[in-house]
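Sharing in case it's useful to others searching the archive later.

Someone asked me privately for the predicted structure of Extracellular solute-binding protein, so I'm posting the question and my answer publicly. Question first, with the sequence:
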Amino acid sequence: MKKLLALALAFAMSLSLAACGGTPASTPASEPAAPASGSSATEEKEPVNLRFYNYALSETAKADWWEETIANFEAEYDWITVEPISVDYNSMVTTLTNDLASGLTADIIYGEISWVPALADAGFIDKPENVLSPDFYAGYYPDVLSAYQYNDGIYGVPHYMTNWLIFVNKDLIEAAGLSMDNFPTTEADLKTWIETLADYYKGTDVSTIFGMTTSEVAATGMALNGLYTAFGGTLFNDDGTLADLNEATNKTALTETLDFCKYLIGNGYTQENLKLKDYRAAFGAGNVCMYIDQSWGYAQIGEVDPNAANFTVTAPLPTQMGTNGKGLSLVSAHTFLFGAGLEDSHKEAIDLFIQYCTSNEVMEGYLNNIGLAFPAHENMADVKISPILEGAAKGANNTVYQSMPAALASVQTELATAALNYCVNGMSLEDTIADYITQAEYYMNQ
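And my answer, the predicted structure tokens:
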């Protein structure tokens, strides 16, 4: 079924490209937008309407911030109207594809790095160097921007970034006699903590000792790839091809990733087939000791308990994971993507809007109270990071580049299937790895 869905989506995108006459990714680059500096609401400007597809508008805490930010921006630049289109996260790519096929346009898309291959291949998005003013574009941190490399260039820019990290309920930890001052730096010590907490909270309302998502969705695939990377594995070569997963280091990392998931599920330290949002809700309710997530997962934690900051802290992944792992993390970033074939007036308006949304003044409250994260642009260099993220901050520099093939989302999501096959369905380790390689190669060859 997953294969049929993937093929159907690819077919729908190819049809929509033909229907809407979208600009192919190979179209020669247009001139970058003129620098935004010096623009003001007092200049004579033709009205511009920006259609802004934004999944965050379907999440309460983020929606309020975005609505206020858009209203404030429009008050300052009164010739620009930002028309927000709210789409659920899991429906964004399909909805966007269908809308473009029907003749609608998309100026800005707010989403994930993993959406780039499908949208770039369909010709729906342009390179930011063709949209943003050069001085502003140069301010993005290179290590984060490199995550957007696809085929012939960079597609998309980060709003902010995070490493994969561990959310910790410090009250539950301390009640069990543990201290964040001695948070584990090795896998062995992490397991000691997990087992200590499991003994202490046996028979209580604490449902999860250490949460690791294994649901068969794209976000889980990203999380499991992040864990595999922490164990020392490489999923894709720098040229975008599938890495040799039978090579000793990669096979060891994949084995240890699957064994770690089985350790968690088999001992009841985590639950099978849960999504990140499930752990966020349970953590906010005080029923989870620790779990792996991206920093902005706190937005949903805070929706459950507005006072969650009183018990929430973070830590980086241990720097010794398994045989070869150094706790390296993949970069995650909430992302601005830009529509293809934009008029110059729209490029100028987009440049102004992105600069506005990437300023210290606008972002400090958000990064501290709603979508906790780390800056990805020098314009936010002076933003004070949330105290909640202080523990995980050093992990933000312990990241590694991963190339982005067209089959990225499918290959990552198959990791969740592999984890469930091994941990729940009784498949042997060797068969699980062999089956995963077969599925990954299938998607890579589409």
